[in-house]
Amino acid sequence: MTSPSRKSIDNWVLGLTGGIGCGKSAVSAMFEELGITVVDADIIARQVVAPDSAGLTAIHEHFGDAVLNADGSLNRAQLRKIIFADNAQKTWLNSLLHPLIREKTLNDLSTANSPYVVLVAPLLFENGLEQFCDRTLVIDVPVEIQISRTIARDNIDRQQALSIIAAQMSREDKLTRADDVADNNQSLAQVAIVIQQLHKLYLALAENK
C-alpha cells in the first residue's frame, strides 16, 4: 500500500511547531476556537498504540506480555526501558510506528472539514512533515522561558530540561525555516490577537489555493 502524498491532501495545511515549553497547545486551542480543525501528531502517536490497535498488537507479539499493563494498555515505561537498552529494538519499533503515525496523520489532514487544517507536530521539521504543509508557523519563546516552563510543567530539574532542549532542533534553525513566527513570551490576550491576524491570512491563502 502506498502512503498518501501531499498531492492527495485537498485541504490547505498549516504546520505548527516549536520547542518544548513554547506553548503549542495553548496556540492550537486558539485555532480550534476559530473553528479550525487541529491534527496533533502527539495524540496520533498515542492512538496508533491504543488497546486493540494494530500497532499495539504488533508490539505485544514482538516484545511479549511485559509491555502490557493489567488492563491491556501499553506499558510505556517498560517499553522505553527495553528500547533504550537495545538500539536494534528501537529501530524495529520506529519502523513499525512511523508509517502508522504518518498514514493516520495524512488521512486526518485529508478528511478535516474546516477552511484549512492545522498540523501540530513538535518534530515537524525533524521528521520532514513540512512537506505536507502549505505554510509553517513556529511558536517561539526564549530558551530560558522554555527551561522554566518545562521544569514547572514536568517536575524535572534544570539539567533534564536542558537535555530535552538540546535533543531538539535549535531555536535558530526553527526560526530560519519558519514561514511565520508567533512570539509566545507575552500575555495570552496579546498572542490571541497575533493568531487572529494570522488566521485571516491563512483563510485568504486557503481560499486561493
From TrEMBL:
Annotated positions binding ATP: 21-26
Assigned EC number: 2.7.1.24
PROSITE patterns tied to this protein: DPCK, PROKAR_LIPOPROTEIN
Compartment annotation: Cytoplasm
Reaction(s) the record says it catalyses: 3'-dephospho-CoA + ATP = ADP + CoA + H(+)
Keyword Transferase belongs to the record: yes
Matching InterPro entries: Depp_CoAkinase, P-loop_NTPase
A GO term, aspect molecular function: dephospho-CoA kinase activity
Keywords: ATP-binding, Coenzyme A biosynthesis, Cytoplasm, Kinase, Nucleotide-binding, Transferase
Pathway involvement of the protein, from the record: Cofactor biosynthesis; coenzyme A biosynthesis; CoA from (R)-pantothenate: step 5/5
KW Mitochondrion (keyword) present: no
Enzyme class of the recorded protein, top EC level: transferase
Assigned protein family: Belongs to the CoaE family.
Function, as annotated: Catalyzes the phosphorylation of the 3'-hydroxyl group of dephosphocoenzyme A to form coenzyme A.
Designated name of the protein: Dephospho-CoA kinase
